[in-house]
Design a protein that fits this description.
The chain has five helices and no strands.
Length: about 120
């Protein structure tokens, strides 16, 4: 019965860098989805001529520094982590260095978020 794993047991947090990368990847993906979803709805309302006035609220939301920084951070993390996943998929021997690749990803991500943050704030 060792091969039979409960569904919820598979979802249980097991710790480690890989699990944090997975959680952050999902959060970043949801952040990108939220931004793109609101953007598409806003554009639809503008072109349909229905919500020109109400769309100004969404544009003001886009322009807030916190939202801009959140979107940039989500896009960059999701892209870099996706590249990490692709690298590990194409070169399975690098799975042994997953932690090091994650920290390299973080070393690239932090300055890529801090520099735009300086311009936003």
């Amino acid at each position: 019965m060792a091969g039979n794993v409960n569904f919820f047991e598979g979802l249980r947090y097991k710790g480690g860098v890989g699990m944090w990368a997975w959680i952050l990847h999902r959060i970043a993906g949801l952040g990108v989805l939220l931004f793109v979803g609101v953007h598409v709805i806003t554009q639809f309302l503008i072109y349909a001529g229905v919500g020109v006035e109400s769309s100004n609220t969404y544009f003001m939301w886009y322009k807030t520094p916190g939202v801009q920084l959140f979107v940039i951070a989500c896009l960059l993390y999701h892209a870099l982590n996706g590249m990490r996943i692709i690298i590990i998929d194409f070169w399975p021997s690098l799975t042994a260095y997953q932690k090091e690749i994650f920290w390299l990803e973080m070393a690239l991500w932090v300055p890529m978020v801090v520099v735009p943050a300086l311009f936003i704030f």
